[in-house]
Amino acid sequence: MKNGLNLNLNMDEHILQALREDVTSEDITTNAIMRVPTPGKAELICKQDGILCGLGVFSRVFELLQPDSHFETTYKDGDACKKGELIGVIYADIRVLLTGERTALNYLQRMSGIATHTHQLVEILKGTNTILLDTRKTTPTLRQFEKYSVKVGGACNHRYNLSDGVLIKDNHICAAGSITKAVQMAKEYVPFVRKIEVETETLDQVAEAIEAGADIIMLDNMDNDTMRKAVEMIGGRAQTECSGNVTAERLLEIADIGVDFVSSGALTYASPALDVSLKNLEAF
Fold first, then answer.
1. Which of 160, 268, 280, 281 could lock 146 by a disulfide, CB 3.0 to 4.6 Å apart?
2. Where are the alpha helices (DSSP H) in the chain?
């Protein structure tokens, strides 16, 4: 794949699964009206201003159906596109174009929507020292695509999965008995190169996390005044992350408080799809 997300062992598997979901035995409509192989092309049109993401995934859908299909475009992931612009042209057997259209567009619309929403929030934070992060609140089986889209939009990824980092949340604290015990057990278990993050909801918990030696302290669902006091208490002894009730309207207020990171699950669970369409199909 020449554009966007690099191929890996998992991506083709997910795309094939999506294609199988859409075609359990045959594409009955296409097979009814297209009885013989017919070379063709279709135009990919942008129908809404936004940031493109997933062009390589779009192309890969057709490649998996027909290895010699090809997608011509001058755009790359992360480029802005305006309503009405021609994004590119996909060349393949018309039967392949018809069968793969919806799956290819689903990926492209979803990924571009996340990149567009992320870009809008990153622009708000421009000029501050606060970095925007995503979360694990992703669509099952689509995490690699959605987290890639966040990066294309200009933000950074939080941990990819449960194997990727230590994040002691409220229920972990309940299971361990206290923040102090949870951090102590984590330090005994994980390699020294791993940072340990602790979720806190009160200033008392912040104080305990500092004393326990947490590397990152998450300030979860705190109002601005409480969060400001927490950042002052921490005083640079740990990195800080704001999470919960993060809206576009609050971003600059949060950045002004001085947190290092702000995480938003809405990047991956609430971004609207970008409207793109495959049009003007024709044989040649």
1. 268
2. 11-22, 28-33, 55-65, 94-125, 143-152, 170-176, 179-189, 203-212, 224-234, 251-257, 266-269
